[in-house]
Design a protein that fits this description.
Layout lengths: L12 E4 L4 E3 L8 E6 L6 H11 L2 H6 L2 E6 L4 H10 L7 E3 L3 H6 L4 E3 L8 E3 L2 E6 L4 E6 L9 H14 L8
InterPro entries: AhpC/TSA, Thioredoxin-like_sf, Thioredoxin_domain
Organism: Jejudonia soesokkakensis
Protein name: Peroxiredoxin-like family protein
Length: 170
């Protein structure tokens, strides 16, 4: 299933490792919500990406962007992720269902090693407008070639300055 720009995104509700619940529809950012789906604890590229993201939290906040990182990992694996990776400031959601991952258009993989969960989603990054519509999406079938946060921050500046419309919904 493909979510089109300018169309409503699927509902999204996940538990956070801090014991609270995160609901997309209850987010109230000034400009966007950045939803980053990552593969899980087993993925070194995800570790690199989230540790990199930590260094940009203030930049995203200054641009009016709320963010969250979500995986299909269990609570136990998500808490280990938080403990072993340098990402304590990033809201971390877990137990994303396969059905929800598919609603978001994420690719699903099966384990090829004992370190991986039986089933997990591949990475995806979504910018969601304050009205709950999709502005942009980047979805991968593999752990490689993810968007760079510097590029995304520059794009947000351009989008806001030029009132650049979402593209690709035709």
């Amino acid at each position: 299933m493909m979510i089109l720009p300018k169309k409503k995104t699927p509902s999204l509700e996940v538990d956070l490792i801090n014991g609270t619940k995160w609901v997309l529809e209850k987010q109230d950012p000034k400009n966007f919500t950045l939803v980053l789906f990552y593969r899980g604890l087993h993925c070194p590229k995800c570790k690199d990406q989230l540790e990199d993201l930590k260094g940009y939290l203030k930049d995203f906040s200054a641009k009016g962007v709320n963010l969250i990182a979500i995986s299909m990992d269990t609570e136990k694996r998500a808490k280990i992720t938080s403990e072993k990776w340098d990402i304590e400031s990033i809201p971390l959601g877990y137990n994303l269902s396969e059905a929800s991952a598919r609603e978001w258009g994420l690719y699903i993989s099966k384990a090829i090693s004992d370190a991986e969960p039986d089933v997990f989603s591949e990475p995806g990054l979504f910018l969601v407008r304050t009205d709950g519509t999709l502005y942009s999406a980047s979805i991968q079938t593999m752990p490689f070639a993810r968007p760079q946060f510097d590029d995304l921050l520059n794009a947000i500046d351009f989008i806001l300055e030029k009132e650049y419309p979402a593209r690709g919904g035709h």
